[in-house]
Design goal:
The complex is a heterodimer.
Chain A lengths: L1 H16 L1 H17 L12 E7 L4 H12 L3 E5 L4 H9 L5 E5 L3 H6 L6 E6 L3 H29 L4 H8 L3 E7 L6 H27 L11 H33 L8 H25 L3 H9 L2 H7 L11 H9 L1 H13 L9 H28 L2
Parallel strand pairs in A: 1-2, 1-3
Antiparallel strand pairs in A: 3-4
Chain B lengths: L10 H14 L4 H21 L5 E7 L4 H12 L3 E5 L3 H10 L4 E5 L3 H6 L5 E7 L3 H28 L5 H8 L4 E6 L7 H29 L2 H11 L2 H30 L8 H25 L3 H12 L2 H4 L11 H8 L2 H12 L10 H33 L1
Parallel strand pairs in B: 1-2, 1-3
Antiparallel strand pairs in B: 3-4
Helix pairs in contact in B: 1-10, 2-8, 2-10, 3-6, 6-7, 8-10, 8-11, 8-12, 8-15, 9-10, 9-16, 10-11, 11-12, 11-15, 11-16, 15-16
Classes of the chains: A alpha/beta, B alpha/beta.
Chain lengths: 380, 394
């Protein structure tokens, strides 16, 4: 027991005096907290710049342009004389869409015929395309509804009846959990879990790989387990405020809707943290030397993020990828922590995922103990 | 190994030494080969999925009339979604939170009667946007299907007033919008991920591996001196150390291009030579980034720390998943310091966007300018290292 306690205390000293460890566990955690969300702080995209080529030049076409410009989604940033100059603007990324109003636009409307317009929208970004498409079709539909109602009324139909003919059913779409459709709300909760994993894994890996000069020589398997548990418990306690920062404080600061119960969060986060710590220790026994540990673990972040299946249902991935994904703690952790934190799930609703995490924690802990014992006892 | 008389300092012995050392450390294959390959495997798998189809949504049909069943049937036919009946709002909420369904379509009581009486009842689609792409895809499917179903009602209310079917169909959309999605006709965003993720993962590998390779040799002044003698000057040493990796990384980039553009059929519409030239500029600039870190930061573990710390979140700052126009100034400036940002701009232009080659000129110039500045920093760093080496050697 005392050997565990001594290892625990020594680990605290090492976490604050070893520069590479300190900079990853605390320095990087602090800087990423401020720095990583920067691209997404504007939340929703507004007023995406588009161009309009007005070949009609009538009151009706100018009315449509005004309506398009008035929408919150897009802004008319250029009125080029022809489609070719508009194309050049699109290639230079100055504008992201083009509305083409053909000649005879007003004439077709006044003759009671459908009067189509063409929309060319940059579909390279999902969000941009969606904004442009919503803004322009919304404006065209609103103007079309007025035209249709006016025609019906002119045909002798009562205005209130005309309205029900134009729109007999109202369709309302209610976005849940992310009402503004903001990218930060979508991405940050998952990215934060991944950041926690990467920093803790690298930190624990460095602590395992940097030789502990004042460390005691384990005299048997029991000592190995005690030292390892002593060290890991110190790492886990240090992580408590960092996890709280990333899972509770930061979502609050960045305006991400948060519904979950902190206790439920803690219950799901604990096995995640244990599994990640153990993985770091495993990496330290497999890859000798802190530089190599850092090098190997650092490149895993982005692949792990894609593996986690965030953004598309995991069931769509091939079997072997799904199997590999389940072995990475962040996969289950992102699922469970986002569901609890942002969707307000209670533990029973995420029981399967949380048990996966406990399974990973147990498995990796055993593996870490075995590998560490083999290395430190095998040396003698 | 080599007879004394035959030894001539130069790049060749340094290259031989670097290759020997690389082969002795197979662990380097993890960042260089394994991670890029794993990512490719994941994304290719997603690619075969391409777009989400038959996403599960719930339908709560309180009305149960002929019209409400028509609406749910139309929605079920939409390729994006498939319907699963739900008995009440509580069940729907539970299923959404547990992730079994993406959204819930609710049709109110007396829906059909209200439509016929002109009371304009409301159908509501609740959808989870926590998984943004998926939620929006489901919305697109449901919204289009409901619009089609309602169009049927609108047409029949006009035919009842004596219009022909064709007249009624023409009359209900006075201003149709003929939408053309540019650069991505099938609205498959995996193309963009595929074309851009690998260079960014490689960028991280290039910078960290180079920082490591340079850093471990600069840790020890005696070794630095020996190496400088072997190469006949620090400039030659650095050039010779980097050269094998330049070819390796270009080969990997080329390999990934064969997979992405050849096997998976991502459009390759632009100018091939422009693409290759910017790729070389990108790899060289990223290597210089690593060299500068390896020379200026010591020990090597710190150089790798800084390299991975700066480069790991790069994908969020390169303007692919989220466009630059939505970012604040800090993020734009930060994004601009990555060689990958400029390379990806040229790469996407010359592949998917089918832009004229001259559009790639600006990113290419920026990459060259970056390389020149980094090379100057590397020269300064090398001078410092040799100066320290000499001082310690006396």
């Amino acid at each position: 027991m005392t050997i565990l306690l001594r290892a625990h205390i020594r680990e605290w000293r090492r976490m604050f005096t070893q520069w590479p460890v300190f900079s990853v566990l605390i320095g990087a955690a602090a800087i990423y907290a401020v720095f990583y969300p920067q691209p997404y702080l504007n939340e929703a995209l507004r007023d995406v710049p588009i161009a309009v080529v007005d070949l009609d030049g009538t009151t009706a076409s100018r009315d449509l342009i005004r309506r398009v410009d008035a929408s919150a989604d897009v802004a008319v940033a250029a009125i080029p004389p022809d489609a070719d100059s508009a194309r050049r603007l699109i290639y230079q990324r100055n504008i992201h869409g083009l509305v083409l109003i053909p000649k005879g636009f007003e004439r077709e409307i006044s003759h009671g015929r459908p009067s189509p317009i063409a929309l060319y929208a940059d579909a390279g970004y999902f969000l941009v395309y969606q904004r442009i498409s919503n803004g322009v079709t919304g404006a065209a539909r609103a103007m079309g509804a007025e035209v249709e109602t006016a025609r019906l009324v002119a045909g002798g139909i009562d205005p209130s009846v005309a309205e029900t003919i134009v729109e007999p059913v109202r369709f309302t779409a209610v976005p849940l959990f992310n009402p503004q459709g903001g990218y930060a709300t979508y991405l940050l909760p998952a990215a934060f879990v991944l950041i926690l994993q990467q920093l803790l894994m690298i930190g624990a890996g460095l602590l395992g790989a940097i030789p502990d000069e004042k460390g005691e020589e384990p005299r048997g398997f029991g000592d190995v387990v005690s030292i390892l548990l002593g060290r890991m418990s110190a790492q886990l306690i240090l992580e408590c405020p960092i996890f709280a920062l990333y899972l509770i404080v930061l979502p609050h600061v960045y305006g991400v809707p948060r519904l979950g119960d902190p206790l439920d969060l803690a219950f799901a986060a604990l096995p995640f943290a244990i599994a990640v710590c153990a993985l770091g220790q495993i990496a330290a026994t497999v890859f000798r030397g802190p530089a190599v540990v850092q090098l190997v673990l650092a490149t895993m972040g982005l692949p792990f993020f894609f593996l986690s299946g965030f953004g598309w249902p995991a069931s769509m991935m091939p079997e072997f990828v799904q199997a590999a994904a389940r072995l990475v703690p962040s996969t289950a952790a992102i699922d469970a922590l986002v569901r609890i934190g942002q969707l307000g799930a209670t533990l029973p609703l995420v029981a399967a995922t949380v048990s996966t995490l406990w399974g990973l924690a147990g498995g990796y802990l055993v593996l870490a103990i075995v590998l560490t014992a083999r290395r430190s006892l095998g040396r003698r | 190994m080599i007879a004394r008389g035959a030894f001539r300092p130069g790049p060749a012995p340094v290259i031989r030494r670097e290759l020997r050392r690389a082969f002795r450390r197979p662990v380097l294959l993890v960042p260089i080969l394994l991670m890029p390959l794993l990512t490719m495997a994941v994304l290719s798998g997603l690619f075969s999925w391409g777009q989400a189809t038959r996403l599960p949504i719930g339908a709560l049909d309180v009305d149960g009339s002929e019209l409400s069943r028509t609406v749910t049937r139309m929605v079920d036919i939409a390729p994006e979604v498939s319907i699963r009946p739900v008995s009440d709002m509580g069940e729907g909420r539970r299923l959404i939170i547990s992730g079994d369904i993406i959204g819930l379509l609710m049709i109110p009581q007396d829906f059909q009667r209200d439509v016929l009486r002109g009371r304009r009842p409301e159908t509501v689609f609740f959808y989870s946007t926590q998984m943004m792409t998926v939620g929006n895809l489901a919305l697109r499917g449901v919204s289009a299907a409901v619009t089609t179903a309602v169009a049927g009602v609108r047409v029949s209310s006009r035919t009842a007033r004596g219009q022909t079917n064709d007249e009624a169909r023409a009359a209900i959309t006075p201003i149709p919008v003929d939408t053309h999605p540019l650069f991505n006709p099938t609205l498959n965003y995996v193309y963009f991920l595929l074309a851009t993720v690998l260079p960014i993962i490689l960028q991280l590998a290039i910078v960290t591996v180079t920082a490591y390779s340079v850093g471990v040799d600069m840790e020890n002044p005696a070794r630095t001196r020996a190496l400088a003698r072997l190469g006949g000057g620090m400039g030659t040493v650095l050039f010779a150390k980097a050269l094998p990796y330049t070819f390796l990384f270009l080969f990997l980039l080329g390999l990934s291009d064969v997979v992405v553009f050849g096997l998976l059929g991502t459009p390759l519409n632009g100018d091939l030579i422009t693409l290759v030239v910017t790729a070389v500029a990108f790899v060289v600039a990223a290597q210089l980034f690593g060299i500068v870190l390896g020379l200026w930061m010591r020990p090597a573990v710190n150089a790798i720390s800084v390299a991975s710390f700066v480069m790991a979140p790069a994908y969020s700052f390169v303007g692919i998943t989220y466009p630059f126009m939505g970012m604040n100034t800090v993020s734009r400036v930060w994004g601009a310091i990555f060689p990958g940002t400029w390379y990806l701009e040229a790469r996407v232009d010359q592949t998917i966007r089918d832009a004229p080659p001259e559009v790639a000129f600006q990113p290419f110039l920026v990459l060259c300018g970056m390389a020149v500045i980094l090379a100057l920093l590397a020269v300064l760093g090398a001078r410092r290292v040799t100066a320290v080496g000499r001082r310690d050697g006396r």
